[in-house]
Design brief:
This protein has about 425 residues and is of the alpha/beta class. The protein is about 35% helix and about 15% strand. GO terms for molecular function: transferase activity.
């Protein structure tokens, strides 16, 4: 309870209650989409137990750079707020421990290859649902269980290629290009979180849990707005436009004296304000630029005129003034420049605490603020703590270690 001074011996550090306080999550996922989903649930108050195989989450090794535990910075970005245990689910005793943890769990998240859980006797419909009818089971995969691609592994960049994202990213010089962040994994994490929250709401109304099915394939295709809609209406395949927009002009990068800006003019009112400010009033009398439709048809002439007008201006002053006139414009910042913005500090988007640094929560609720919990855990850091809370005594825990069910450090076994 928020404000209480009494805590269990191994409870997380005291913090204000989040909206998901009391929700217990068992996280079997690795790499990015699943761990980011469960980190976001943790930021909103959920208790998350990260269950790793003997080899550990692969992301721990995706460095340098690394933290004091030797875990890659990549791992720390998506695993804060969790307690971690090591568990070999290929052994029956390991699966028995998992079932023990599920007895008071609300959510299970996994991203194994489809069919893995079923081979272990943990199929949702046959094994999990009958035993835990209130459990919300979230399965994240590349393509789902069935269909022509069902059961195949999925990776962000491969899905960017397969689902058309690369075909609209880049320019004539670069050719189709991977988007610079694992955007499919990221949105899949948010999609999984949304599905879990919908299922929790449904359970509150009906008392019943359910399976949430999330795939990178579906998520990647869902990102094709407006490109897919344009193609569906015209039959013409979208192409490479660099930073430009297929439906809006001017909406592109432009070079200033000291760097680039992005200018995003989406209506005629903004276009008039922009032209007046940068000395391009003559364009307002030119029929080629009278509306967005005409501007799109003459985008190259428009781009040339704008580039000439901005070439000797300084980017920060220009963006400052345009934004305050209601014309969307922003400097093209590096990652360090992005986090150095005073507004990033104001919004709490660079978390720094007790040696940990991370990106702050993007979701804010007025009545239940997000809180940053524990730092990212070392491998199997909380194994004994979690198992004791699940009702196992020291003798049982020692026996599991003798059977190699509870690895104490990552190994290449699995």
């Amino acid at each position: 309870m928020s404000g209480s001074s009494e805590h269990a011996a191994h409870a997380p550090p005291a913090r204000a209650a989040g909206v998901l306080e009391g929700v217990r999550v068992i996280d079997l996922s690795r790499v990015l989409a699943g761990p980011l989903c469960t980190q976001m649930l943790s930021d909103q108050g959920a208790s998350v137990i990260k269950v790793e195989p003997p080899g550990g989450d692969e992301t721990r090794a995706l460095g340098p750079p690394a933290n004091a535990h030797g875990d890659a910075a990549y791992f720390t970005a998506v695993n804060r707020g969790k307690r971690a245990i090591g568990l070999d689910l290929s052994l029956q005793e390991g699966r028995d421990v998992l079932l023990r943890l599920l007895e008071d769990a609300d959510v299970l998240v996994e991203n194994f290859l489809p069919g893995t859980m079923a081979r272990w006797g943990l199929d949702y419909e046959a094994d999990i649902r009958p035993r835990f009818p209130q459990l919300i089971y979230c399965a994240i995969s590349g393509f789902g269980e069935d269909g022509p691609l069902g059961g195949l592994p999925g990776y962000d960049a491969i899905l960017q290629a397969m689902c058309g994202l690369m075909s609209v990213n880049g320019d004539a010089a670069s050719g189709p290009t991977r988007i610079g962040i694992p955007i499919v994994d990221h949105l899949t994490a948010y999609t999984a979180q949304s599905g879990i929250l919908l299922a929790l709401y449904h359970r509150a109304r009906t008392g019943q849990g359910q399976r949430v099915d999330v795939t990178l394939f579906d998520t990647a295709l869902s990102l094709l707005v407006p490109h897919a809609a344009n193609w569906m209406h015209t039959g013409q395949a979208p192409g490479l436009l660099g930073s430009a927009h297929p439906n809006i002009a001017p909406y592109d990068c432009f070079a200033c004296r000291d760097g680039q800006i992005f200018l995003g003019v989406v209506n005629d009112r903004q276009f008039r304000k922009f032209c007046d400010y940068v000395g391009l009033g003559g364009l307002l009398q030119d029929a080629r630029f009278a509306s967005n439709r005409e501007r799109l048809q003459h985008r190259e002439a428009l781009r040339s005129a704008i580039q000439d007008a901005l070439a000797e201006r300084t980017r920060d002053e220009l963006c400052h003034d345009l934004m305050r006139l209601g014309v969307p414009a922003g400097p093209v910042n590096s990652v360090p420049e992005a986090f150095a913005q005073t507004h990033a500090a104001h919004r709490g988007m660079h978390v720094q605490r007790d040696g940990y640094q991370g990106i702050g929560p993007a979701t804010r609720l007025s009545q239940a603020a997000a809180r940053i919990g524990r730092p990212p855990p070392a491998f199997a850091q909380h194994t004994d703590e979690v198992l004791r809370q699940a009702g196992l005594d020291d003798t049982q825990i020692a026996r599991l270690r003798e059977l190699d069910v509870l690895p104490g450090k990552p190994s290449p076994k699995q």
